[in-house]
């Protein structure tokens, strides 16, 4: 098992070593998107890379490294900066969060996009793109195809936002603060928020980053809720087995029915994320470490997504069709227009 894990990890690291510099060269795309894309290409061109011999390494990278990346990314959050945003911006952030999550539930049902894909596209649009998708995946164990579809959707509309937001902001005569709030609440990945914000003005970019940091904190209650819902579904499935007369349930089912310890409800990586943010806020993380920690977090997410890409079969994406992308378009439009509308009333 150790040898197969190392073999699989070696392949993941090779893909990551190519994806990270590409992401730095084209920051609008980013290393994680290159990671999953190169993983899919490598698995398609060299089918043997999808064999079970490599699977332990892929599983380790797509689970353990993914969870570790969320902990490391927590060091990028300063609670002092978050407090500076002020109460005035909270209605816009919470309103767009409700629009994205409510829209994912409603339009996901109407379009027939359900399960993990619906959840990840909703969370990615509502909070912070790839990082939110990574955290939700770590909490619910989402399918590879769902992760790939959600990332592709978020990436598509990040590009659209970066290209259209600055000219639209000037057309609407928005102040730097108003544009920063708009970009910080309606654009997903941090790199895209930075690109759009500073394309507008220095002040808009500074505001957008702080809003984005504050928005990232909503990962905590969302991930806790997803973990609780997953446990509830598992318990319901166990009760259904009993109801149809399956007899005594096996050990795995029995463990579901027992009272759950707190660590099952609160994922350890989330505790690490909060602890890392607390250390940063307390000044225990020197400013000089932040670029290295940010790069480390990005590398870990890229490695995890490269592993998902290596495991993914293109047929899993073809089976879903264009509906997830349509769901992402609807949610992006809701959040974009909703953020502007909420600002006008706040």
TrEMBL record:
Topology in membrane: Multi-pass membrane protein
Transmembrane segments: 29-48, 60-79, 85-107, 119-141, 147-166, 213-231, 265-283, 289-312, 324-345
Entry GO CC: plasma membrane
Compartments reported by the entry: Cell membrane
Top-level taxon in the UniProt lineage: Bacteria
Main location: membrane
Keyword set, alphabetical order: Cell membrane, Membrane, Transmembrane, Transmembrane helix
Pfam families named in the record: Cons_hypoth698 (PF03601)
Protein's UniProt keywords contain Nucleotide-binding: no
Family: Belongs to the UPF0324 family.
Protein name: Sulfate exporter family transporter
Source species of the chain: Kribbella sp. HUAS MG21
């Amino acid at each position: 098992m150790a040898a197969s894990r190392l073999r699989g990890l070696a392949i993941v690291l090779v893909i990551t070593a190519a994806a990270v510099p590409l992401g730095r060269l084209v920051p609008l795309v980013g290393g994680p998107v290159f990671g999953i894309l190169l993983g899919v290409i490598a698995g398609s061109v060299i089918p043997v890379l999808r064999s079970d011999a490599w699977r332990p390494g892929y599983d380790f990278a797509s689970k353990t490294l993914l969870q570790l990346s969320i902990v490391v990314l927590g060091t990028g959050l300063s609670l002092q900066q978050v407090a500076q945003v002020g109460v005035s911006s909270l209605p816009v952030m919470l309103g767009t969060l409700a629009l994205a999550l409510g829209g994912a539930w409603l339009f996901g049902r109407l379009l027939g996009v359900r399960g993990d894909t619906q959840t990840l596209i909703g969370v990615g649009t509502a909070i912070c793109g790839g990082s939110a998708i990574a955290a939700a995946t770590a909490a619910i164990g989402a399918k590879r195809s769902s992760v790939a579809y959600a990332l592709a959707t978020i990436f598509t509309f990040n590009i659209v936002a970066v290209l259209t937001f600055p000219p639209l902001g000037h057309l609407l005569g928005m102040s730097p603060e108003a544009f920063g709030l708009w970009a910080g609440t309606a654009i997903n990945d941090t790199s895209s928020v930075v690109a759009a914000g500073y394309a507008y003005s220095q002040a808009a970019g500074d505001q957008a980053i702080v809003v984005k940091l504050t928005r990232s904190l909503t990962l905590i209650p969302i991930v806790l809720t997803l973990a609780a819902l997953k446990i509830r579904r598992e318990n319901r499935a166990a009760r259904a087995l009993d109801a149809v007369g399956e007899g005594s349930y096996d050990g795995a089912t029995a463990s579901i029915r027992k009272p759950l310890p707190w660590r099952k409800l609160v994922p350890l990586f989330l505790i690490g994320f909060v602890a890392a943010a607390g250390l940063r806020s307390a000044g225990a993380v020197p400013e000089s470490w932040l670029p290295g920690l940010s790069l480390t977090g990005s590398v870990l997410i890229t490695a995890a997504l490269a592993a998902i890409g290596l495991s993914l079969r293109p047929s899993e994406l073809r089976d879903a069709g264009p509906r997830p992308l349509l769901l992402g378009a609807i949610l992006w439009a809701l959040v974009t227009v909703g953020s502007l509308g909420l600002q006008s009333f706040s």
